[in-house]
Amino acid sequence: MIERSRHMTATTTTMKAVVQDGYGPPERVFRLQEIDKPTIGDDDVLVRVRATSVNTPDWITVAGVPRILRLKSGLRRPSTPVRGSDLAGVVEAVGKHVTDLQPGDEVFGSAWAGASATTGTFAEFTVASASQLLEMPTGLGFEEAAASVMSGLTALIALRDVGEARPGTRVLINGASGGVGTLAVQIAKALGAEVTGVCSTTNLELVRSLGADHVIDYTAEDFTRGEQRYDVILDNVMNRPASATARVLAPAGTLIPNSVGNTGGFFAGLPRMGRAALMGWGSKDVRFVTCVVNRENLAALAALLESGDVKVVIDKTYPLDDAAKAVAHMLGHRARGKIAITV
């Protein structure tokens, strides 16, 4: 855990950041460089980043495949060269319209689609919209707070809003040991659901320890061939055909394919997501989840973290200059929980 500090740094115009100068293996395209510190707009906040984490959109943009996605991100290199969106840190400066945050405040949230953001969070400083930041949850270190944001909000929205899980709801989480999965197991239990987690042999005890009522070892058993039926299936892996997964839905059940948490290969899951979408227009209820970062959702996540009902599982923490190793770790698709980066 990083020791917190309210110490403010001297004013500078530059900062260290990990810059992506092309597409390919992270160790080849990442460079630790000195770049200009980002400027803020009227509704923005400049944050000194203390920790961030790696998410699926980060490694997708690093890999740059399939190439068609480069039409949006940049043909030869990303137009926004610094990866990362999750953050926890200390407010350095605020825009003139921001009245409820001030320099020295410890915050967590996201720089995703910030109003004036020109950089991500693999950097000493970043800019985020004030509407996407909240006071740090009490009792959490910077790594845990940062690592909770995208994965935690995805799990929360999927189960609370999309799946409408409540006491007695039978929830199956495929990929229960990953970044979204570890948080989803705990959030589902906090909502009162009966939870089944699907993971590998080596992660069975981890998933049990998070509160899962039942665990399935996918190396020994195919959950899509079982007799149990589920009201909600959150599929973070999409390693089974959507039709097979939907077979174990209860009559009024909901299938939620999740690309944000897909550590089994995002693009391998795209055809199955497409088929799942088509199924949603027929007899099966298939709904997709969008990670919405706002203060209301952050407050709900913070309450779960502060209560102790939900804890962030961090597989490994890397320093900023090892950000390439952090992304490569996630690309290996074997992470237990989240991968954090300290700054």
The main pleated sheet reads as: 7 strands, mixed
Indicate the multimeric state: single chain
The residue-averaged pLDDT reads 89
N/C terminus separation = 12 Å
Number of domains: 2
Number of strands: 15
Q: What is the CATH topology of the largest domain?
A: Quinone Oxidoreductase, Chain A, domain 1
| Low-confidence spans | 1-10, 261-273
Helix content: 25-40%
CATH superfamily of the largest domain: Medium-chain alcohol dehydrogenases, catalytic domain
How much beta, percentage-wise?
A: 25-35%
Instruction: Specify the number of helices.
Output: 11
Question: Secondary structure elements and their pairing?
Answer:
Elements: E1 14-20, H1 26-29, E2 30-36, E3 44-53, H2 56-63, H3 70-73, E4 86-94, E5 106-110, E6 125-129, E7 133-135, H4 142-147, H5 149-162, E8 170-174, H6 179-190, E9 194-199, H7 204-209, E10 214-217, E11 230-235, H8 242-247, E12 249-257, H9 266-280, E13 285-286, H10 295-307, E14 314-319, H11 323-331, E15 338-342
Helix pairs in contact: 2-11, 5-6
Short description:
With 343 residues, this protein is α/β, with parallel strands linked by helices. The chain has helices spanning 26-29, 56-63, 70-73, 142-147, 149-162, 179-190, 204-209, 242-247, 266-280, 295-307, 323-331, and strands at residues 14-20, 30-36, 44-53, 86-94, 106-110, 125-129, 133-135, 170-174, 194-199, 214-217, 230-235, 249-257, 285-286, 314-319, 338-342.
How would you characterize this protein structure?
Strand 8, helix 6 (179-190) and strand 9 (194-199) form a beta-alpha-beta unit. The strands form three sheets. Strands 3, 4, 5, 6, 7, 14 and 15 form a seven-stranded mixed sheet that branches. Strands 10-9-8-11-12-13 form a six-stranded parallel sheet. The chain has eleven helices and 15 strands. Helix 5 packs across helix 6 (179-190). It is of the alpha/beta class and 343 residues long. It has helices at 26-29, 56-63, 70-73, 142-147, 149-162, 179-190, 204-209, 242-247, 266-280, 295-307, 323-331; strands at residues 14-20, 30-36, 44-53, 86-94, 106-110, 125-129, 133-135, 170-174, 194-199, 214-217, 230-235, 249-257, 285-286, 314-319, 338-342. The chain folds into two domains: 14-148 and 312-342, Medium-chain alcohol dehydrogenases, catalytic domain (Quinone Oxidoreductase, Chain A, domain 1); 150-286, 3-Layer(aba) Sandwich (Rossmann fold).
